[in-house]
Specification:
The protein is of the alpha/beta class. The chain folds into 4 domains: 44 residues, no CATH class; 208 residues, MFS general substrate transporter like domains (Growth Hormone, Chain: A, Up-down Bundle), CATH 1.20.1250.20; 194 residues, Growth Hormone, Chain: A (Up-down Bundle), CATH 1.20.1250; 237 residues, 3-Layer(aba) Sandwich (Rossmann fold), CATH 3.40.50. The protein contains 31 helices and 10 strands. Helix 28 links the parallel strand 7 and strand 8. The longest helix is centred in the first third of the chain and has 32 residues. The termini are far apart. The chain binds adenosine-5'-triphosphate. Adenosine-5'-triphosphate (ATP) binds next to helix 22. The site of adenosine-5'-triphosphate (ATP) has 10 residues, from helix 22. It comes from Dactylosporangium sucinum. Pfam families: ABC_tran, MFS_1. GO terms for molecular function: ATP binding; ATP hydrolysis activity; branched-chain amino acid transmembrane transporter activity. Belongs to the ABC transporter superfamily.
Length: 737
């Protein structure tokens, strides 16, 4: 037993509570806690005993991997066949070589473009349905390819084919992660990835077989693609019948001892919220940066390597295809070894698995550099076999690392981003950099410079994320545990706070302004949010109402998690914010302001007139000015109009920023009278207010914030006696309240 084992409990649930405790200690003391990382490493090993591939298959069933492998294989075969048949397609359709090349690249571009929307859909809807539909579309495109007569038709079918293929990374990746236990995921990803090199080998074989079957036919390629449509349809039907696993089920079982019951009220994750969260997962951020750099090397360099085969070794199209197929065999071996070793290393230590990936990334570019200067074809092929093996050996652990640090709610989006960075960021950059280098120095020197530089840089970036890996895994685990605690509270029928903010971190770009903020507001309560200048009060309100997205933590309304929901959804659930300052359409009349404000936020005109009529009962002053342009209202009247518009939305909880800012004392009294009326009617409110006196006169409870942290929370009358805090607000504002 190692020291690490002794220092951390073996029971996953106990471990997760260690994680939570240590995480909160880290927040309070502001220090990074090594113990947290050690705990999470043990969590991984404790939760998952070593499993044979047979165990892994019996846990998830062979069907899912079999069908998804089949899908990946026909995708790859299709690509390979398109390359092989490119000259025939060119002749049949009487189009130029460059047109065929552009169309050939089109499918790849569509894979990149389609991945993100598909990933986002995959985080919301049945992934088996999406994958099935994409494959059916793909099958239609393959059959259609056999029928095309003109370039534009070719473009359309290849666009459809590319979109169909785009499900592979995000949808199939996340399905695999949720179907097979983490202890065997490396091997599962390895098998799935090996479909790509296998397709490169089989594509030319199938093409040759069809050419033999239809001898002398210039249109043999049409038959080849039509043939491919048959297994595609069968696989599409197969994927539609696959079981849809719950998202994150293995993580839940390991940590919580069972799956969380499905949440029928779960709200869709918005892309913006997923991005905000993902970019704050440091390991993920580093992986993306590394892949951007790696893409410089891996997307365009192989094309220049192929040019070298022609220019320096005089190899024609067929020979080049053959060499491509032979070197792809290395990829098969690499993917298999990558799967076995990444599982083994991850079990031992997640960092080791990461280093395996970074070492492979770095080695690949060096391998390409050597391949570019191969003295003859034989050495070129041998080095090509090795580089192909290294590539697939390195991609598997990366997938495993990404799966382990990303929240399971948007793992498909995370997988989509991986592909996007590699292909678009790296690919476009690679085309530019390698192209410029090739023009100046020739293909060989360009490869020898660009490929090692980019891939060693990628390896270094990736390796330097190792220090964050355990902490990121631990935080993903802790978030899951916290979600479970809240769901249990809800299921038990405990009285839930109307608003709950839990362990919230938030940053503007690199600058963090909220640190582990937690607070609760009960039904009917008025909470004053006080604090020094720049303490983060407005930012907190913006995160609650969804105008900004948290780096970490949760926002719930009546126990329902809205953390990843968009502002409009939150408005519909009753979270309504009255923005600070003058927030009216100045050229529109007061009544139009009300109606438009209500319409844009509600998205329809549901009884708006009636609602406006009801709301105006409270705002007699506005009623007298209904036809007056809002811009001509005084500051206080505009503040009232903002309040009235918010009330039109029938909020469950009203968030008011800077209630009395810039108002005359008389106007303050009028606004306060309205707020008191709302309070008497039982409306729940959070009020950010500069004046402690005003705030404490209407609030039941107060929260005092300083430098992004909650310093005091308690009954309003208690805060009135905390001279230190009250003085801080006075001093912070510099003016009396
Ligand atoms: N859009 C923004 N971009 C970058 N930084 C911002 C942005 N808005 C606010 N900040 C910074 O975030 C921190 C918190 O600001 P916030 O407005 O939330 O504080 P506050 O408590 O409402 O302050 P005040 O009472 O002075 O309005 C401040 O340091 C501020 O400079």
């Amino acid at each position: 037993m190692t020291d690490e084992d002794r220092a951390t409990p073996r029971d996953p649930r106990l471990l997760a509570s260690v994680v939570l405790d240590r995480d909160s200690t880290r927040h309070h003391h502001g220090s990074d806690d090594d113990g947290l990382r050690a705990a999470e490493a043990a969590l991984k090993t404790a939760a998952e005993p070593e499993a044979t591939f047979k165990d892994v298959m019996s846990a998830g069933g062979r069907m899912t991997l079999g069908v998804l492998f089949g899908l990946a294989l026909i995708d790859s075969v299709d690509n390979a066949m398109f390359t092989v048949f490119a000259p025939d397609i060119r002749e049949s359709l009487r189009i130029s070589s460059s047109a065929v090349a552009v169309v050939g690249a089109l499918a790849g571009v569509m894979v990149s473009l389609g991945a993100l929307p598909l990933g986002s859909l995959g985080d919301r809807f049945r992934r088996t349905f999406i994958a099935g539909l994409c494959t059916l579309g793909w099958a239609v495109a393959a059959a259609g390819l056999g029928l095309v007569q003109a370039l534009w038709q070719l473009v359309i079918v290849r666009i459809i084919a590319g979109l169909g293929k785009a499900n592979e990374g995000p949808i199939q990746g996340s399905l695999l992660a949720d179907t097979y236990p983490p202890a065997g995921r490396g091997r599962v990803f390895g098998v799935h990835r090996s479909a790509l090199p296998l397709g490169i080998v089989l594509g030319p074989v199938l093409a040759a077989a069809v050419a033999v079957a239809v001898p002398g036919d210039r249109d043999a390629w049409r038959w080849a693609f039509a043939v491919l449509a048959v297994p595609a349809v069968i696989l599409a039907l197969g994927v539609l019948r696959l079981p849809e696993p719950a998202r994150g089920r293995f993580e839940q079982e390991a940590l919580l001892g069972g799956e969380l019951p499905p949440d029928p009220d779960a709200l869709p994750v918005t892309l913006a919220a997923a991005f905000a969260r993902l970019k704050k997962i440091r390991t993920f951020y580093f992986v993306m940066a590394a892949l951007g750099a790696f893409g410089l090397c891996v997307t365009t360099v192989p094309i220049y390597l192929s040019l070298i085969l022609e220019d320096h070794f005089g190899q024609g199209v067929e020979a080049r295809g053959m060499i491509g197929a032979v070197t792809a065999l290395g990829g098969l071996i690499g993917a298999a070894l990558g799967g076995v070793y990444s599982d083994r290393l991850f079990r031992r230590s997640p960092e080791a698995c990461l280093y395996m990936g970074s070492g492979a990334l770095a080695a690949l570019g060096v391998g390409f550099g050597i391949q570019a200067y191969a003295p003859n074809v034989a050495i070129y092929v041998v080095v090509g076999l090795i580089t192909s093996a290294i590539l697939f050996f390195g991609l598997v652990p990366l997938t495993l690392v990404v799966a382990s640090v990303t929240p399971t709610e948007f793992r498909a989006t995370a997988f989509a981003l991986v592909g996007l960075y590699l292909a678009l960021v790296g690919g476009l950059g690679g085309a530019l950099v390698t192209g410029l280098a090739e023009e100046s120095w020739g293909a060989r020197a360009a490869i020898a410079v660009v490929a090692p530089a980019a891939s060693v840089l990628a390896g270094i970036i990736l390796a330097s994320s190792a220090g964050h890996l355990r902490g990121d895994i631990a935080r993903a685990a802790a978030d899951l545990l916290e979600e479970r605690t809240e769901r249990l509270r809800l299921a038990r029928g405990d009285e839930m706070p109307l608003l709950q903010v839990s362990h919230l971190d938030f940053s503007y770009g690199p600058v963090q302004v909220l640190f582990d903020v937690s607070l609760e507001v009960r039904q009917g309560e008025t909470l004053a949010l006080l604090g020094t200048n720049g303490a983060g009060k407005s930012s907190l309100l913006r995160v609650i109402s969804g105008l900004e997205h948290a780096d970490r933590g949760a926002v719930r309304i009546s126990g329902r998690t809205v953390t990843y929901a968009d502002p409009a959804t939150r408005v519909k659930l009753g979270i309504v914010q009255v923005p600070g300052g003058r927030s009216v359409y100045p050229n529109l009349s007061v009544s139009d302001n009300l109606l438009i404000g209500g319409y844009t936020l509600l998205g329809d005109s549901r009884n708006l007139e009636q609602r406006a009529h009801d709301v105006l009962e409270r705002f007699p002053l506005l009623r007298q000015r209904l036809d007056q342009p809002a811009g001509t209202l005084s500051g206080g009247e505009q503040q009232m109009l903002g309040l009235a518009t918010a009330m039109l939305l029938r909020p469950e909880i009203l968030l008011i920023d800077e209630l009395s800012l810039g108002l005359s004392p008389v106007m303050v009294q009028e606004v306060l009278a309205i707020i008191e009326g709302l309070k008497a009617d039982g409306l729940t409110m959070v009020i950010v207010e500069q004046s402690v006196k005003i705030a404490l006169s209407i609030a039941d409870r107060a929260v005092f914030m300083e430098k992004g942290q909650v310093r005091f929370e308690g009954p309003a009358h208690e805060l009135a006696h905390r001279d230190d805090l009250v003085r801080a607000v006075f001093l912070g504002k510099g003016a009396g309240a």
